[in-house]
Each structure stands twice: as structure tokens, then as C-alpha cells.
Design brief:
Chain A is α/β, with parallel strands linked by helices and 757 residues long. The two termini of chain A are 46 Å apart. The two termini of chain B are 26 Å apart. The relative contact order of chain B is 0.14. The chains are: A alpha/beta (757), B alpha/beta (278). Chains A and B meet through α8, β19, β20 and β24 of A and β1, α6 and α7 of B.
Chain lengths: 757, 278
Amino acid sequence: MNFLAKIFGINPMEYDQWQLNWAPEDPWLISVSLGLIIPLALWFFWTSLRRIGSRPKKVFIFFLRIMAFSFLLIVLLRPELEFKKSHSLKNHIAVLLDNSKSLSIKTFPGESPRIDLVKNTLEFNEKYLEQLNSKFNVDTYFVSDEIKKTGSHLENYRPDRPFTDLSRVLNELERSYENKPLQGVLLFSDGADLTEEPKKISEGILKSLARINAPVYTFQAGSNDRFKDLALESISVSDFGFVQQPVHLSVMVFSSAMGNRNVPLVLKEGDRILVSRIIEIRNDKKYYKVDLQFTPRKMGKRIYTLNLPRFAEESILSNNQKEFEIDIARDRVRILHLNGRPSWDSRYLREVLANNPRVDLLSFFILRSLGDDVAAPTSELSLIPFPSNLLFDDYLSSFDLIIFQNFKFEPFIDKKYLLNIRKYVEKGGSFLMVGGELSFQGGSYSRTPIEDILPVSFKETDSWFIDQEFHPKINEELFNHPILRLEKDLQLNREVLAALPPLQGANLGLVARKDAYVLAEFGNGSSSPAPIIVAGEFGKGRTALLATDSVWNWRFRKEGGSRYFHRFWNNAIDWLIAEPQTRRLQLESDKDRYQEEQQVLIKLKLLQKNYQPASGVTGRLTISSRKEEIIAKEITTDEQGEQTFSFLPDKAGFFKARLEIGGLQEEVMFSVLKDNAEFEKPLANDFVLKKIAEISGGKYFLLNGTNDLSGLQFDNPKIKTKSHSRSFSLWDNWWAYGLVAGFLFLDWWMRRKAGLS
Amino acid sequence: MQPLACTRKIHFVPLLYPPSCFKLKGMRNHFSIFIFAAQLLFVGAAPVAAGYSDLTLPRIIYKGGNDNARPEGLRSLLSQIARRTSVEVNREPIELKLSDPKLFKHPFIYLGGDEPFEPFPDKDIKTLREYLSYGGFLFIDDNSAESESGFDRSVRRMTKRLFPQTPLRNIPRDHSVFRSFYLLNTVSGRAIIQSYLEGITLKGRTVLMYSANDQAGAWSRNKLGDWNYDVIAGGYRQRQLSIRLGINIILYALTLDYKKDMVHLPIILERLRRYQSP
């Protein structure tokens, strides 16, 4: 080595190895080829020397030719002499530290969090880990639903990730070490992996372990021994429900070491208890399935809370309460339709309602008048008693809309029930009165609660009803009103309304209230116009009236078609029950549920009374959590009557955005979710940790904080790798080519001297 | 409690009921005669306050045959409807041609006769088809009291042209027409030619009903209150059942399947179980 270094003028201390390299990709092929050609050529050459008598001369000439061929061969094989310095390669050890939330759960008997067991163990084995670090490349990772490399300092080691997914962790680990020698893995975890099925190990973990091909030593932080907890492990309930329809919940309650006791499970909406159930907790049983049922009474996004009592000795208290949200919608529109007498008007309206798949219709026709003589006993009639008590006392609030069509309330409804209808509308119900001789004053509704809720007042008049054909005059200001939108296109809508067949017969003596929407009027020129279609609001509810009994004309005519009749009534129903598209103020969030650290976007749209965009109107937007107001802000609509507002919630929970603008108010609810799933299933999972260790050839340990890891030994095979080198060409220089040429020239000159050509 | 209504609108048309209607058990006969005579004093004395939405029964005029074989039939039925139900009626039936634009102001039309009639022009067939499809109702009554009469053949020919894909079918006994006001399980008439009604149903709504039993003949009575035609092979009960059927047909046209609503079913089924209609 030193000799060669001297020859090539390099410092022998810098290198510890030398090596001869051959440049051709397949030097053997060249060597074999030349090994065949050269001897053949030499044989021919030898035979050509037979005329030379002197044997030494003959041998010398032949020697010269052999030397020439030898150097030619060296040039062809392009040899290089490489001096190099090499060192041993270190293997990798991966240390995986679970930092999911379940590591914060108390463990017994020390009542310290599981993560402390991990920290104490690492501290206790500090020297061993330092040694390990000197021999191997020790890489430390925080693992949960992700794998994140960290330094050896563990100041940032906190249990704050939402959940653990060991399958994903091992898969990503395997990919990280695809081209690196991984000699072993130390996994510190409680094994609480909600993605794994109980007492099973997933295919993903098995595949990753096979590819890692290194022992995984698993260290379980925390045990289930004497683990005390009462938890709402899971709630199975639909995201949406229907008003007045039972909602079913299936709740799984988990109990561990809580003794024998009875605990109440309570479902609340706000402070109101909806349903409660006593669960008999027994020491020998861990899981309790409880089915609950309640009936939502109001629509919209509702937040419900399930509660279990909290006991001081529990490992974790936060899993004794769970909130969830259900979007309560209207599955069907429940309509009570009362007809004073069978008529074509009531027949066609009933047909619209009965054929509408959205509508649950309960209709009553008064088929027999007080003075009628049916000439048959009751048993031969199909008439039934009119259940006024049930309808207007017990079940009134279950209807979305009440229609009185040419209906005189006496003697079917006690006057006191009219007050119930008033309250019903005031609280958000809907009421429609359709005209005819038994409606309005004709139905003795003057100075009754019905007059209060209608958008008109009654005045004394000579005649309450006029039988005259007329074209209703549509209010130009309110062409955009949802009830009158028979076509989307405004111009077409105008034409359609103008082309509707005439009506005949109108109720008189009605004076629209100031805040009413008079959509259509009847004017015979001789007196002030009489309102025909009027819509209004009373309390939280909506009311409307149709002061004619001839709208069926729009249905039963060759011209005009029936679709506008249907559309008119569907529009009227939608407006009366305040379907979202008919509201003047619309407030919504871009999502119902947000994750933590996600931006919330609130959108608003405000329409004027004539349903044109209300621009430049300022209102007050407040956003509050359940306990406190977070944001209060002035907000002004743009030219389209719209505006947006975004903010970043600083905590999880349920929020309410409330907007008061232009005399209207609207609310929208949304939730910001925090993933606490691991608290719902808090048990440590020794099965998965044991299996991982067993399958990978590692070992399972239960941490107590003072486990000695020094027994863990890892092989470090002597794989060497060069750090630097220097090469010298043995052929690409003047003396190699000179020797070839010199030998050939000397060969030629000797042959000439010997008399050969 | 029965659903009884107090009608504010007062019709001054006299209710002409024969003395027999006022015969009560133990009451002297001359009292009923007195009441009847008192009614007669008001005949033609009061105006009719007819409303546009009140029930009007148009009789269809057609070419050939006899479209007015029972001139008093519809008026008598209207009188019975006014007397027995809360339906407000226009007491005088009207006459209409199918080509009359006023046809689409009257969702119920009556077509009767006792002789074969000329096939309707294509235009009238088309109008009638539209009328029924848009929500109208046609009641056809064979007044001939004969089986396979000329009128019957004309009707069947006409209905085939009207809805070629939907022929006349027997109306089942659980149809709403048999419970729209009275509970019925027979199809009566002046003469029982067929024990069933026939009809055409479109999209769940029966738009046409046909009776071969001369219903209008059973309904007809003169201004003195006497029945115009004797019922064949029956008596008072048969006539009453025909009137009840007439009222039920009208009430069906006005309320459709109302009596099939779930709220009615338990009571109706219980009564049907107890009540055995003759």
C-alpha cells in the first residue's frame, strides 16, 4: 500500500484500501475474445518465423510480439487503480412515542397520566438510550393519526392528537426506511387504536410489519387494571330528523370498576329534559346498550346533550357528557283543511293538497247542514263526528297549516278554540282563510281572535259577498312575492298572471292592515278596491286570505292550463309555512360542522318587503357560544342585498349566529368539532401491542416507569461505506502507448534484420 | 255529534215535499196536508240567490235521440241535494252543448236519453276528452229502462272513441261513490237493468260514470210533488236508494276520495259491518 502510494505520490495515511478497477462493462467478454484471437495470431506469427535459423533470435522476436499484444490488451481493458478510505455503516432504530389524547388518561394506582409512564421510562433509561444513540441512528417520532419526526428532546411531547392509527403509522414508517437499514422499533403506546377492531389486528398492520422486517418492541403505557370509568362510548343517531316524528337513539354506555349502582342517563335540549333512563350498572358487566326515543317539536338545527353522572374516582370525566346535533326538518306538511260545504273550489283545492306528496292532509267537509233532512238513520250515512276538541286543543300544534275554506266555525268549533288558533299562529303556525259566503264576516269571525290574526280587518258593509266576474288586479309592487311567482322569469310571470282566467265572486268588507302584503285586488270601478289575495304575519306565524271562492277557475279551464293553479297553491303553502326560500332574511353558514381551526363563513341575504334586494341596510350580527357572546358586529348589505362574514373560532363547541336587520331577525347554528373519540373508548389495548411484538419478533412490555431497557440488544452488521477515494489510470498515459509502439517497432526492425518482410 | 252546518245564505225556493213526507207516527193526516198547502203558497214567490260556485247541473244536448227523456229528473235531484246536504245548488238545471264555451264553467255534466243518438263530432269528442281530463265529471244515464238499448249502444260507441285505451269498467263496491254521503251496497234506479255502475277512471279519479238503470226516472217528480215514473219491480225503498245514489254521485264529484281518508275509515267500516243495506 505504502509502496503504491509512493509510486502515485499520495499520502498513505489518507487511504486505507486500494483496488484495481476495470473500466469495460464486461471485461471478461473482452478477455475471452482476446484470449482466443491472440493465441491464434501468435501461432500464425510463430510459424512465420520458421525461416529464422537462430532459435534465440526467434524466441526474442516472438517475445516482442507477445509484449506488444499484452500492452494492447491493457489499453483495451482500461484498468484504474483506486485508493479509498472507508468506514462502518450505522443501522437505524426508530422510537415511536404515542401522543394521542388517550395518553392523558389517568392510570392506576398512581393516578398519573399514561404519558408520564412513557416519560419516566425514557428518563430512567437515559444512559441506555445514549449508548444506543452512539451505536445506531436513533430516530424519534411522535405517532398518532400521523407520524412526525422529532428531536431527542421531548419538551413538545404532549397528548394532543385526536386519535391513534397504528396501521397508518407503521405504513409510513416502512416507507421512510425503504432504502435504510432499520434494525428495530421501540413503540411506546397505550394501544388505544380506535381504527382496530377489538381482539383483531388489521391487514394493514400485518403488511407493514412484514415490509419493515425488524423487531418491534412494544411498551404499553397504562393498563386496564382497576381502571374506573363511566363513559358514553357511542351514540348512534341520524344527523337529521323530522318534526313531530320520533327520533331513535342507541347509546352504548361503558362502565369499568364502578361497582354496583344505578345511574340515570338523561337526554336534554338546553335545560329541558326530554327523556331519561335508569341504567343498572353491575361490576361484572362493562357495556350497556340503551335505546332512547324522543319527538322533536321544533324545526331547525337542534343541539341535544346526553348526560351521565360524574363520579370523582373516575379516570376521565369528559366522557360522561356528549353533545350532538340533529337537523330537524319538516318531512311532510301537515295541513288541516276545513270546508264549510262541498263546492268546486274546495274540491280542486283538496285535489291539489291530496295529490301533493309533501302534504299530510286532514280534511273535513261539512256535508250536512243543521236544517238538512238526510232521510236516513245515522247508520246508513258515512258522516262522522267532527273531533273539534282533538283538533283544536290536543293536536293543534302538530299542524303546519290550518285552512278554513268557506267555513263558519259555529256550531262545530267552540269560540274558545279560536283563541287557541290565535296562540298557535302567534307561536309560528300558519293560517289561511279561503273566501265564500261562510268566510270572514259571513262566518261570524268579526271581533274574534281570527280577525286579529288575519292581515285584514272587517268593516260593516251592505253586502259581504258579490257575485261578479273580474280579473284580479295584481299589485305591481309585489310581482316578486313568492306567492305570485308562477314563473321564474319576471316578464313571463307578468304575462302568465295577466292571462289567468277571470274569477267570479268576491268577499267584501275587508280592509288590509298596514303591514299586510296586498297581492291582488278586485275593483269594479264604483268603489275602492277590495283585497283579494292578502298575506301577512302575526307573531311568529304567517297568515293569508283569498277573498274569493272561484280560484278553481284557474284549474278547470282549457286556456291557461292547470299547472299555474297548482303552482299558485304550492307557492301559497310554501310561503305560509315559511319555507326558507320564501323568507325575506336568509342567514346561513357554509357548513353545518367545522373542524377545529377551520374558518367559518356566514352568509346573509336581505330582501325588501316587495322581495327586491335590500341594499345598504345595516344590522347587528352576534355570534355566541352556549355561554357567552363572542362577536358583535355591525354588518351592511351590498347592492345585491347580500353580505358575508367569516371568523375563526378559538374553541370547539356549538355556536349560534344571530342577525337583526331591517326589523327582521334570523338565527343559524353551527358546531366546531373537537375529536375526543379516544375518551369515549379509553381502555388500553394490550392485544394489539402484544400481537405487533409477537409477529415482528419483538417483545411486549407493560410500563411501570422503571422498566429497564438495557436488555434490548440490536445487531449492527459491519457494512462499510467509502467516505472518499482517488483513482489513477493505468492505461491512458504516454508510457503505455509508447511501450506498445516500441515493442511493435523493435519487432518490425528485428524481422527486417532477419530478412523477413 | 254529526257535522251540521248553519248556512247563512238562505234560499227561498220552496221545498216541495209531498204530504207523505210529513206523516209522523200518531199525527193526523190533515196536518201534513196543511203543511203541503202552505208550501204551495210560496211556489214561485221567492228569488233564487244562485252563486257562481254553487252546484249547477248542466244537461248535455246532442243530435239525434232524446236528450231530455226525464225533464224533471235533474231538478228533482237538485232539490233533494239541497234538502239533504249542505251543498249549495242552483235549482234550475241548464242545457249545454259540448261545443258551448260555458262547458268549462261546470265541472259536472249529465247526459241522459232513451234512444240511440248520432255519433258526436270529432271536435266534441276532443272537447269532452279535455273536459274530463282537466277535472270535469260526466254522468251518463240510460233512461230507456231496457237492456242493451239503442242509447246503451250509442253510449258504448261514444266512450270507446272518448278513451280508446280506457274502456268502461264495472265500478267496485269499495269505490268512494258508494260512501260519499250514504252508505250503499246496491245500484238502484227506476229499473234494475244492471246491478252495477260502470265508469272510466283516469289517474285514480273516476271521470265518467254510466248507469243503465234510469236514475233520473226514479228521481223525477212533478211540481206537485208526485213521482213522474213508477219504479219497476220495486217500491219506495228502491226509489230512495236511487236518490241516495244520485246524491252520492254528486258528492263524489265534489269531494272525490274524501271518504277514503283514514280519519273516516274506522267509523265507516264499523257501520258497513253492522249495516246490511237491502
